[in-house]
Please model this.
Amino acid sequence: MNKEKRRAIFERLREANPNPTTELEYATPFQLLVAVILSAQMTDRGVNKVTRPLFQEAGTPAAMLALGEEGLRERIRSINYCNTKAANIIKTCRILLERHGGEVPNDRAALEALPGVGRKTANVILNTIFGEPVMAVDTHIFRVANRTGLAPGKTVREVEDKLTRLVPKEFLRNAHHWLILHGRYICVARKPRCGACIIYDLCEYKEKTA
Model:
């Protein structure tokens, strides 16, 4: 795909949704961090159902730490891998309080040092909270990047690096959200909704349908 097509794709995505953001519900950076940790192997809708009451009860690192691992596990039991996630979140709360004054750090290394936080989660926080032009490549973005020809790659990191390099700079801040939403609602896994796609004529997917 050439740079003219890439620019046209993001111009259309921006026109359709000028201010995209995550569908995870949160009020503070800490709450988004917890929500993203919980979101692995989960839908945002499923996470939001759990975090609405959870954040009302324990919306800070100190309050969540006070629940303890068992208490948190009880409150997130509908979340996949709730035992592991509860343990990681409690450990993360302790580290935030002991090393970062209860604040979520604006630093990749510090974020990735938190239990349950990998590169993708760190990228979500850096992008959504701190406005950094980074790409958190999930299954939706990986699929869209490969299927459309936007930034094909065999691994998540390869796609991330290509998107970071190839997406025009003015779009990079919001590209993460545009591509996730496009993959979630239009360019879906089994039967992409090509007839409803605003970038249909720019897409290089060989099997696209009218």
